[in-house]
Amino acid sequence: MSRRVTDNAVGNRPTRHAKTIIIGSGFAGLGLAIRLSQQGRTDYLVLERGSDVGGTWRDNTYPGAACDVPSQLYSYSFALNPNWSRSFSKQGEIQSYIQGVAKRHRVLDKHIFDCDVTAARWNAEAAVWEIESTKGDFTADTVVSAVGALCEPMLPDIKGINGFEGEIFHSARWNHDAELTGKRVAVIGTGASAIQIVPSIAPQVAHLDVYQRTAPWLLPRTDRPYLLPERLAFRYLPGVQRLSRAAIYAARETQVVGLAKFPPLMRAFEAIAKAKLRAEIRDPELRAKVTPDFRIGCKRMLISNNYYPALSRPNVDVVTDGIREVRANSIVTADGTEREIDALIVATGFHVTDSPTYNTITGADGRTLAEVFDEIGQQGYKGSAINNFPNMFFLLGPNVGLGHTSMVYMIESQINYIADALDTVDRMGLRTVEVRREVQDAYNRGLQAKMAPSVWMTGGCSSWYLDKHGNNTTLWPDFTFEFRRLTKKFDVAAYRTTTRGASRSELKVVG
Ligand code: N01
């Protein structure tokens, strides 16, 4: 059980201690919480800034929000859902699934909701993490950051945007009270979020301007409702759902060959995307505007059957001139054209390689994660540990992202690794574990060497996959089963460790 202590290094305020604290309860943090419970661990807490589980699936409620990965694969392997209503799930169904899993596995009482972690500091003397939050102070022997990469909306730095007087909101903070029907609306961005929003709102608004900086590649979305016999088979015929999942996994994994190893193979996808473009956009001028100029896959490949038809509607314009400024009720582009609007939807993505949460975590040498990343780039070890941050693990840390298949697969690989790390710490009586800098450096050299031929580095685009040093510190550059293999066991030899002693003087460095 977590216990209350009354006096510790955080100050003299009451501080709650838990052996393990998980920050964030999206797919990642929740999955780890369930694993800890399954292992019989009770001394852990999950601090979640929202008022519910679900993370990105709780936050992204924009019209049309749905997953790009097939339903069968986009779920926990230990909680298959035979009830998916369609082959690609919508946000509401995924969020209900996550809520249901949390409830069934009885981990909600381990959660503290509306608890925004504002600081986490490593106290080397006491070998604990000191955490400040909007729900009080905590200490923990081990912290697992599970905040995810797509949680901090990025607002564009456009002149005058703060002076806009109409409705304005980010795609991940949709204002459901804003009335868009019959209004003049602008959407900035043409990424995965925007291409779902645009067709969803186009029929209801008076006019829609889509501000496109880079045209994305689009592939067909093979979405359809499941037929009753299929759902019955998933429910009652043993193995059918696992077989379907395995087939989807295998098919998606073949994309790695083109994406990561031999990008010319991506031409096959390009041919499909071009045919789609020709079939769905008849107007040559519009078609030219939305034809991408980089190799497919360099930025995330998007899937949609209704985006191009929406762009072809008479009440929709694609604006490719750069935005010069936003005024009280309009947007002015570089060519001097002013377009009046009532509402502005900012679908400009997230702080991925420069998350503000990095400023709140302070490691062993007093530097924040932001400062460390500023110097060496967003580097870690197996996406799960970072030198200078002892007794801290990361779910969805550096270089575990994917564009082609389910992130839940990567999350479960990391859960295996971190759960085994916690077991190892207990079994060996370790006080601290910190990944060795030389191991981390070698790992990243290997990673970047693998990354070099990938389409993400050679495809001729700029993307949020790259950090300010020009390295791709976001994606995993290999087959996902290779990551599963690497994370099967906690490799304690890669870590500098100290053992527990009654006092600091008895501290023994064992590795
Ligand atoms: O964000 P993005 P997103 N002026 O960063 C443009 C996941 N996801 O929210 O390409 C003008 O992809 C920017 O232009 P450019 C998925 O992993 C999944 O759409 O940088 N434009 C781009 O067009 C995804 O990759 C799902 O030139 C500006 C757009 O804004 C990730 O979330 C659904 C600008 C941002 O696109 C993020 O997707 C949704 C500026 N100043 C999201 N700044 C599914 O599974 C940025 N842009 C379905």
Automatic annotation (TrEMBL):
InterPro entries: FAD-bind_Monooxygenase_sf, FAD/NAD-bd_sf. This is NAD(P)/FAD-dependent oxidoreductase. Coiled coil: none annotated.
